Amino acid sequence: MLGQLANDINLLQKQLIFAVNGFGVGSEPEHQASVAQAMLAQRLLAGRLNEAYEFIRTAERHAATRDYEASLPDEWRAARKSLNAYFGADNLIRRLRNKLAFHFDVKATREAYDTVPGFLG
Predict the structure, then answer these.
(1) Are 28 and 68 in contact (CB under 8 A)?
(2) Which candidate, 1, 28, 62, 103, has a CA 20 to 30 Å from the CA of 111?
(3) pLDDT tens by residue, 75-101
C-alpha cells in the first residue's frame, strides 16, 4: 500500500509539473488544457497526500511500528513529528481534499458559477 501511494504521488507530481510547464505555451486551447490538467493533478495529489498521511497515522498505532520507533534516525522522528503537526491542524492539503479532490462543496461551486458571465445556472 505504501509503495502504491509513493508511486501515485510521484506520478501526480510529474503530471502537475508537465501541465504547469504548458502554461502560456501554444494556442489558447492548449493553454486551457494545461490549466485543466494542472487543476486535476493538484486535486488528486492533495487527496493522495492526505491518504498517505492517514495510512502513516494509522500504522503508528500498531505495536510493531512502536517497536521500531527507537531504531529510527532522529531526522525521521522529527519529520514524522512535523507531519503530525501539519496534518493535526487545519491545512491546505486537507482543505483541497475535502472541498475539491474527493468531495465537492456545493455552495462554493454554485458561487463560482455565479461569477461566470452568461452562465444559466
Answers:
(1) no
(2) 28
(3) 988 998 899 999 999 999 988 888 777
